[in-house]
């Protein structure tokens, strides 16, 4: 199974063994959440770009 294996010592968890694919999926989720937190902070600081401006920038790069 892909369930984590908890290794204990004297009845307390000391380590976890994970399937590599599960570990990688967890890392990707963590990275995405960190990027979302950064984006939200940037928006709160007024550093956002409107949808129309973003669209224009992307289309400008594609059309070149």
From TrEMBL:
Transmembrane segments: none annotated. Belongs to the phD/YefM antitoxin family. This is Antitoxin. It comes from Vibrio cholerae. Antitoxin component of a type II toxin-antitoxin (TA) system. SUPFAM superfamilies: YefM-like. InterPro entries: Antitoxin_Phd/YefM, YefM-like_sf. It comes from the Bacteria.
């Amino acid at each position: 199974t892909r369930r984590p294996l908890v290794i204990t010592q004297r009845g307390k968890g000391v380590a976890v063994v994970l399937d590599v694919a599960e570990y990688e999926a967890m890392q990707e989720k963590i990275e995405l959440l960190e990027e979302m937190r950064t984006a939200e902070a940037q928006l709160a600081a007024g550093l956002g770009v409107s949808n129309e401006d973003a669209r224009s920038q992307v289309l400008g790069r594609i059309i070149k």
